[in-house]
């Protein structure tokens, strides 16, 4: 593992272990015995899990595995939205709250399952009027408002694929995604609240749509009362078309392998990958994992996943998993410090949240704000705490346990990816002992291994690449329109063994618990968001002053990794490597990709370290970015380059 990013070597020192309490174990949704059941009869185990759903027609075959192509629940038919909504109303739970929605400015909405059924049906009828049919692609760029959920479920109901694009992404990023999937409809809003202020949304989406002729209509939700440019005939207000529809809509069954959504994620090249998920297997695993990993009790638990629906966590753990399990969820629109740093704890107290699922970057931010903040609130309703998005350092894990969980909530560190669709590695609360910083073991029904470059399993104490050696129901079914990239990215590294290559480094401790060590490729993880180094490099070199750029992820106390860029400026610009020039570049990246991709630091250099084959040696740049002694430079084409960079930086150039 040459270029493996953060290697948390201190983890081998971590010996604390927290066994489940007897009280929790006595009422837990899963038991130890599930692990053996998952191993002994994997397909039988998943067939049992699929029974959590309503099938219009039962499957004939659990799994058809022609590596790397899997079909799950072959011959089965279901409607995903019916499973997430109508079914609960039909079973007498129409009055149960599906969402306690909390707007950033403090406005609220309570949405019951009966409300959800009517809103989703109306939206489905409106989409039909706008010409959306099964198999079409619909782009959604919305803030965290209920209409985002209605839109996703309306698509699912009609068998149309949604492609949700994070609200913070630039017009360019939206354009690329619409173009790749040839979306027909875009659903957006007039504006979005950002730290207490309305920011424009439609103005940006219009910029994208001007360059994407496949878009026939833009459906616009009014959220901030912002004035918007309007294109007659193309643009339609949500309240104009949706509100007048009937609240009745008959959901048609679709094949278990009918596509459900595309979600773009960064790869090692500049072009994002459209990860494709299908219906039956995806929903089965989303529901199963939400049930066992969070020990969710329908009608009792109050569940809050703080992710944005623009990320896979929002798809699987705000929308599909919880709704399939008839959860009562909190959905919050805004930032955690608006209007004050206790906003999350205030919400936990207000709704009596019992399951709270967030990301390490936010936990580290809470740590920075101080434990006095959560201390001011009554957090005694909390029972289970979750973490996702990046490795959680033991210090943050302990802080979370002590200051949020008051030492009595199991912490579930959940490892998974956009590609895996649902949680793969995590402890089971009430069953598995937890260790600060470890995702512990693969879930019942899931198989993972840590192997060497030669695909040899490493034993206890060993480290290597994380692979998934058996197919799983919510696995990606491909990269939209690019089968070759699908094979190359995930299935070529261990082609002989047929293993899925996750792109993460991992190790086993002496007890066999799994510790994730970060990405082994050129993908950075900034606050749990995957951003490719190449993507940021392309944005930088698209600026007229930049000749060349190299980007690395350097470890960052708060965001996990921070983006550090090394740029070579062009001729005249090179004389002006001052603050203004650097600010202009940071802003340029934010404009090209989105504010989350803004480099933390930009260093102006005269040369970049390259191998003889011209590959930039990011490992060395990472040494500089993290203030370390620069490592082995023998493979550099010109070994003096690093001296030049290091000395140039010391002189403050
Ligand atoms: C769900 C999600 C996936 C990448 C993954 C890994 C990192 C996610 C983690 C974790 C260590 C965890 N990652 N969860 N690393 N421990 N609990 O985040 O999906 O955005 O596709 O990112 O995130 O590196 O490969 P996605």
From TrEMBL:
Keywords: Acetylation, ATP-binding, Ligase, Magnesium, Metal-binding, Nucleotide-binding. It catalyses: acetate + ATP + CoA = acetyl-CoA + AMP + diphosphate. GO terms for biological process: acetyl-CoA biosynthetic process from acetate. Its EC number is 6.2.1.1. SUPFAM superfamilies: Acetyl-CoA synthetase-like. Residues 1-15 have a biased composition (Polar residues). Residues 1-24 are annotated as: Disordered. Mg(2+) binds at residues 541, 543, 546. Acetylated. Deacetylation by the SIR2-homolog deacetylase activates the enzyme. ATP binds at residues 389-391, 413-418, 504, 519, 530. Its cofactor is Mg(2+). It holds the Pfam family AMP-binding. GO terms for cellular component: cytosol. Residues 535-615 form the AMP-binding enzyme C-terminal domain. Residues 91-480 form the AMP-dependent synthetase/ligase domain. Transmembrane segments: none annotated. The keyword Isomerase does not apply. Residues 32-84 form the Acetyl-coenzyme A synthetase N-terminal domain. NCBIfam families: Ac_CoA_lig_AcsA, PRK00174.1. This is Acetyl-coenzyme A synthetase.
């Amino acid at each position: 593992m040459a270029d493996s990013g953060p290697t948390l070597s201190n983890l081998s020192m971590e010996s604390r272990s927290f066994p489940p309490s007897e009280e929790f174990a006595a009422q837990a949704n899963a038991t130890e015995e599930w692990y053996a059941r998952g191993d002994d009869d994997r397909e039988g185990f998943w067939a049992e899990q699929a029974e959590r759903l309503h099938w219009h027609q039962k499957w004939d075959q659990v799994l058809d595995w022609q590596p790397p192509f899997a079909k799950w629940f072959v011959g089965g038919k279901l409607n995903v939205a019916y499973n997430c909504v109508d079914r609960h109303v039909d079973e007498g739970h129409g009055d149960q709250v599906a969402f306690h929605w909390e707007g950033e400015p403090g406005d609220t909405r309570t949405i019951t399952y009966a409300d959800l059924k009517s809103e989703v049906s109306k939206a489905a009828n409106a989409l039909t009027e706008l010409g959306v049919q099964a198999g079409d692609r619909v782009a959604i760029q919305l803030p965290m408002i209920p209409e985002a959920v209605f839109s996703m479920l309306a698509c699912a109901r009609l068998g149309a694929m949604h492609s949700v694009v994070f609200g913070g992404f630039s017009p360019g990023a939206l354009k690329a995604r619409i173009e790749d999937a040839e979306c027909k409809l875009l659903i957006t809003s007039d504006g979005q609240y950002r730290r207490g202020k309305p920011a424009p949304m439609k103005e940006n989406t219009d910029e994208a749509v001007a360059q994407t002729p496949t878009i026939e209509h833009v459906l616009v939700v009014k959220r901030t009362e912002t004035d918007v440019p309007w294109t007659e005939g193309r643009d339609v207000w949500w309240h104009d078309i949706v509100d007048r529809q009937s609240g009745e809509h008959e959901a048609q069954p679709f094949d278990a392998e009918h596509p459900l959504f595309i979600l773009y994620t960064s790869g090692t090249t500049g072009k994002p990958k459209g990860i494709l998920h299908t219906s039956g297997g995806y929903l089965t695993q989303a529901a199963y994992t939400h049930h066992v990993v969070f020990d969710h009790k329908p009608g009792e638990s109050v569940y809050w996943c703080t992710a944005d629906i623009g990320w896979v966590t929002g798809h699987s753990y705000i929308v599909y998993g919880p709704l399939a399990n008839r959860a009562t969820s909190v959905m919050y629109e805004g930032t955690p410090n608006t209007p004050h740093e206790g906003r999350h704890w205030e919400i936990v107290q207000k709704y009596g949240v019992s399951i709270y699922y967030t990301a390490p970057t936010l936990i580290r931010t809470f740590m920075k704000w101080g434990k006095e903040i959560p201390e001011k609130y009554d957090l005694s309703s909390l029972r289970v705490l979750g973490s996702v998005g990046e490795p959680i350092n033991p210090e943050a894990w302990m802080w979370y346990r002590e200051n949020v969980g008051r030492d009595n909530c199991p912490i579930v560190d959940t490892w998974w990816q956009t590609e895996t669709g649902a949680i793969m590695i995590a402890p089971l609360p009430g069953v598995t002992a937890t260790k600060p910083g470890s995702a512990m073991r693969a879930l019942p029904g899931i198989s993972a291994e840590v192997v060497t470059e030669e695909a040899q399993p490493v034993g206890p104490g060993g480290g290597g690449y994380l692979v998934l050696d058996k197919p799983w129901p919510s696995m990606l079914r491909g990269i939209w329109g690019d089968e070759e990239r699908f094979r190359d990215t995930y299935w070529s590294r261990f082609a002989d063994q047929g293993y899925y290559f996750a792109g993460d480094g991992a190790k086993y401790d002496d007890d066999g618990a799994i510790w994730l060590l970060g990405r082994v490729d050129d993908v950075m993880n900034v606050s749990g968001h995957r951003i490719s180094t190449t993507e940021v490099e392309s944005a930088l070199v698209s600026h007229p002053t930049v000749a060349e750029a190299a980007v690395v992820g350097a470890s960052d106390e708060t965001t996990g990794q921070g983006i550090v860029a090394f740029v070579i400026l062009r001729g005249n610009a090179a004389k002006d490597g001052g603050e203004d020039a650097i600010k202009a570049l940071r802003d340029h990246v934010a404009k090209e990709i989105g504010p989350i991709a803004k480099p933390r630091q930009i260093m102006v250099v005269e040369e970049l370290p390259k191998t003889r084959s011209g590959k930039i040696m990011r490992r060395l740049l990472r040494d500089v970015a993290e203030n370390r002694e620069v490592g082995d430079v023998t493979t550099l084409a010109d070994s003096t380059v690093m001296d030049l960079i290091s000395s140039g930086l010391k002189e403050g150039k």
